[in-house]
Automatic annotation (TrEMBL):
It comes from Afifella marina DSM 2698. PANTHER family: MITOCHONDRIAL METAL TRANSPORTER 1-RELATED. The keyword Membrane applies. Residues 217-293 form the Cation efflux protein cytoplasmic domain. This is Cation diffusion facilitator family transporter. One of its GO terms (cellular component) is plasma membrane. Keywords: Membrane, Transmembrane, Transmembrane helix, Transport. The lineage of its organism: Bacteria, Pseudomonadati, Pseudomonadota, Alphaproteobacteria, Hyphomicrobiales. The chain crosses the membrane at residues 12-36, 42-65, 85-107, 119-138, 159-181.
Length: 308
């Protein structure tokens, strides 16, 4: 079949963004620990713990992306793309762990409310860390979708969960300071922890699906069928379409039915046209096409191109 079309970005680029996440996580940790030291707030301390998890998760994503970018070899003929899912699963577990730590801290503070000091400067510093995370998470999510990278998307969602934690924490600490009801500090921290826990569960669930070779999303499968029909002129139908996604790569295989009188060279040309069209639209996709004569046509074919 034809050679893959050139890609628009180098394979190493996603790892570069993961490295940027490590830098952002270090900055966030420094700011939030300073805010906690100034105020003594258990909620701000819990927020700092969440940022420590950000650092571990970003480091895991960087290692996984470097591994996933390695070319195929004799031992891994389909590449190392699934390495990203291990990072995403680990990150989801870390999010869940951080949420449990926050809940534990909130529970202890619930029965021993702590006096809050220097709220103005402390909350300002914590807000700066939240804004930094929000800006980087937005950029990271855009790049993750561009590269179709589960590790980058998981890292971005983790950062958004951290931003949600910061917003809840700042609101709780501010309310506690203004009203004098110090119990609000641990209560709102606990509510945010529940939200973080839910986010971690969804990350683990989605990543496990990738490890289990779940089919590509419905919109991608519909686009594949549309492209086969568009570029498969001269063939009759395509059936038994099967897809799976591994990191940034989509795997596709299907049976292409052609007229029984068609030569091998003519069928090969149609396959080339379909492959080029799919790669142009979908990027990194591995395609396997099994050509069959017209008597192998099926009534339940996913794509009908022409009738003999």
């Amino acid at each position: 079949m034809s050679n893959p079309l050139p890609q628009t970005a180098p394979k190493a680029a996603p790892a570069t963004y993961a490295l940027g996440s490590i830098v952002v996580a270090l900055a966030g940790i420094a700011l939030k620990l300073l805010a906690w030291k100034l105020t003594g707030s258990v909620a701000l301390f819990s927020d700092a713990l969440e940022s420590l998890v950000n650092l571990a998760a970003a480091a895991g994503a960087y290692i996984a992306l470097r591994q996933a970018a390695r070319p195929a070899d004799d031992g891994h003929p389909f590449g190392h793309h699934k390495a990203e899912y291990f990072s995403a699963v680990a990150e989801g577990i870390l999010i869940i762990g951080a949420a449990l730590v926050i809940l534990n801290e909130a529970w202890q503070a619930l029965f021993g409310p702590r006096v809050l000091d220097d709220l103005g400067i402390g909350l300002f510093i914590n807000a700066l860390a939240g804004l930094l995370n929000a800006a980087w998470a937005t950029h990271l999510l855009r790049q993750g979708r561009h590269f179709r990278s589960p590790a980058l998307i998981a890292d971005a969602k983790h950062l958004f969960a951290d931003v949600a934690t910061s917003v809840g924490v700042i609101g709780g600490v501010l309310a506690a300071g203004l009203t004098g009801y110090l119990i609000l500090d641990p209560l709102l921290a606990a509510l945010v922890a529940v939200n973080v826990l839910w986010s971690g569960w969804h990350l683990v669930r989605g990543s496990v699906g990738g490890l289990m070779d779940e089919a590509a999303p419905a919109e991608i499968r519909a686009e594949i069928q549309e492209l086969i029909q568009k570029h498969g002129a001269g063939s009759l139908q395509a059936h038994d379409l099967r897809t799976r996604v591994a990191g940034q790569r989509t795997f596709l295989e299907f049976h292409l039915v052609v007229p029984r009188t068609m030569t091998v060279a003519e069928a090969h040309k149609i396959c080339d046209a379909i492959e080029d069209g799919l790669r142009l639209r979908l990027g990194d996709i591995h395609i396997a096409i099994h050509v069959e004569p017209s008597e192998k046509a099926k009534a339940e074919a996913e794509v009908i191109i022409a009738s003999e």
